[in-house]
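Our preliminary data section would be incomplete without showing what the modeling component actually yields. Below, a chain of 191 amino acids is followed by its predicted structure, encoded as tokens that our downstream tools consume directly.
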Amino acid sequence: GTELTHALTDGNYTLQATANDTLGQSNPTNPRNILVDTIFPLIDFASPTPANLTVVNGTVVLNFTASDTNLVNITISLDGSTTQLCTSSPCSFALNTTTVAEGNPTVHPTVIDVAGNLNSTSTRTVDVDNSDPTIQFVSPTPSSDVYSSNQTINVTGSDSHLGTLTLVVDNSIVATSATSPLTFLLTEGNH
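Predicted structure:
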């Protein structure tokens, strides 16, 4: 037999072969349509998507764009498990943080085309914080009672992303602190 090679560039082609004999008779094959696709699809996070290590809670939308002439799907994985498939671009994934453990889950999108060319982005990690901060009065804060001298009020609060502690006396903010504990001297008066 004879083996010939011809390099095909990316694109659509129709193939057909014909056998001829010396008597002038011929027999063609049925045509076959093929696609040559050697180009890997592109994928990236799209705006608005939280930046890497952004603190999130509730439902957070992550957006992706992919480009390829022959796109099959975009696969969104959360901590290594497939959570969503999109068959077109752009693609959005709504992450409900109440369904994942607090911490740093990773989101990893991949894209594949009809030729099996696969591409992915780097992972994006979000910092899930579904817990309310804690706060409490601590000693020597007085309990509800009558006192004949100034009283020291101590408040502690904690949260992995603590913002501020605020002390309110008689419906007025009297002290705030970005760190715990917060200490305030309550002077004489009817409070």
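The radius of gyration is 33 Å. The mean pLDDT is 92. Preliminary results of this kind motivate Aim 1 of the renewal.
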